[in-house]
Amino acid sequence: MFKKVLIANRGEIAVQTIRALHELNIKAVAVYSTADADSLFVKMSDETVCIGSGQPTDSYLKMGAVLDAAALTASDAIFPGYGFLSENSEFAELCQEYGIKFIGPSAEVINLMGNKANAKATMKKLGVPTIPGSDGYLKDLDQALELAEQIGYPVMLKAAAGGGGKGIRQVDDSNQLCKVYEETKREIKLSYGDDHLYLEKDLSDSKHIEMQAIADQHGHVVYFPERDCSLQRNHQKIMEESPCPEISDEERQHMGEVVVNAMKGINYENTGTFEFLMDRDHQFYFMEMNTRLQVEHTITEEVAGVELIKAMIKVAAGEDLPFNQADCKAKGYALECRINAEDPAKVFQPTPGTIEFVHFPFGTKGVRIDSGVETGSKISPFYDSMIAKIIVHMPTKKDAVAKMLRALKEFEIKGVKTNREFLVDLLQDQHFLDGDFNNLYVENHFLKEWVKHHDK
């Protein structure tokens, strides 16, 4: 087992990782920017190294600075978390060259699955259902037009190197495709340094269902109950639930078997998440794979009864998975709400500032809070605006919603505006309660009505 692990991240995921490391009797090293000097995760770490200024490009994205900090502190391994360098194949390769274990999959697999067009082609070969569309990159506009006619409009034009909901265009007809094709290539070249595009059938009237799995170095692979992440805005998740109440045990098992087979087919090590679109007929189609831990891993931990960060560390150290498939059946229902420093009535504009006071609703069965802030913490404009994740785990969705509503109403914060009121109203929406929503429900329906009553 490792003796010392460096966390190449910040905020709540750094806090959770430090807790897991300490419970495994492993020393935790934090790297931090000058903007995070007084942050909770820095205070909790055994050792700390400042790696630059507030801009992520000057600190958390500086591979050399992170690796130098690992060498300086004699760290055995690096835990990347999510965001920043977590899906950077070059960084994973450099870790290997430095003799430091990257807690995640190999650089080769990150590279393979990080390119969405290549990932789709690979999954197709492994028997994973894929969205009708291009096999690999589009060669030119003519190919895009021909393919769009074959599969039928509307279609989605996507950046092969995109991520986080960026580099995606919905196209309704050939005239629009002609107009946006070169424009999109130019935009993504500036954002990603790569102008390759691919095209898919638009399955907007679908649910965003994802399934996480984990593989050790000895051929054992386990899948976890799926998550429904359809409540999103601008391709950014707002609230997640697990398991999806509309999916049967048989459908879950089938999806799990497909995921396990794919993990084995690409020789995957550690945890990863397969993102699918599920249509109204419950047919599911592969979208992409995230080769890292995800923000919403918490609800998976609750319903499956596992500790994923600890499992990731153990697997990276060469140990067997600490659980088997039978251990990971869905137990009850879990729900996560993301508390962000933002104003939903103003197009979710970030609201950075100093937290003058915060009270989290701890203290009852079934409520979990993952956060990296405390009274006095600063919400920086440099980073994601998430303040905390509130997770509830109860026997039923009805019980969980009631508990989450109580928790959100008890949660109190002063100094920064949050999306709490928006979440409270969404939780009481009948479409959510009935499971009658798709990927676009929040953006096209709920949000428009909500803003009418809150835009003051």
How would you describe this structure to a colleague?
- The structure is a single chain.
- With 456 residues, the chain is α+β, with helices and mostly antiparallel strands.
- It has 3 domains: 4-103, Rossmann fold (3-Layer(aba) Sandwich); 132-201, ATP-grasp fold, A domain (Dna Ligase, domain 1, 2-Layer Sandwich); 207-454, 2-Layer Sandwich (D-amino Acid Aminotransferase, Chain A, domain 1).
- Helices cover 35% and strands 25% of the residues.
- The chain has 15 helices and 23 strands.
Short account of what is shown:
The chain has helices at 11-23, 40-44, 63-72, 89-98, 107-114, 116-125, 141-151, 174-192, 249-265, 297-304, 308-316, 397-410, 420-427, 430-434, 441-454; strands spanning 4-7, 27-33, 47-52, 77-79, 101-102, 155-159, 168-171, 197-201, 207-215, 221-223, 227-233, 236-242, 270-278, 284-290, 333-340, 342-343, 349-350, 353-354, 357-359, 367-371, 378-379, 386-394, 412-414. With 456 residues, it is an alpha+beta fold.
What order do the helices and strands come in, and which of them pair?
Blueprint: E1 4-7, H1 11-23, E2 27-33, H2 40-44, E3 47-52, H3 63-72, E4 77-79, H4 89-98, E5 101-102, H5 107-114, H6 116-125, H7 141-151, E6 155-159, E7 168-171, H8 174-192, E8 197-201, E9 207-215, E10 221-223, E11 227-233, E12 236-242, H9 249-265, E13 270-278, E14 284-290, H10 297-304, H11 308-316, E15 333-340, E16 342-343, E17 349-350, E18 353-354, E19 357-359, E20 367-371, E21 378-379, E22 386-394, H12 397-410, E23 412-414, H13 420-427, H14 430-434, H15 441-454
Parallel strand pairs: 1-2, 1-4, 2-3, 4-5
Antiparallel strand pairs: 6-7, 6-8, 9-10, 9-11, 9-13, 11-12, 12-15, 13-14, 15-22, 16-17, 18-21, 19-23, 20-22
Helix pairs in contact: 4-5, 7-8, 12-13
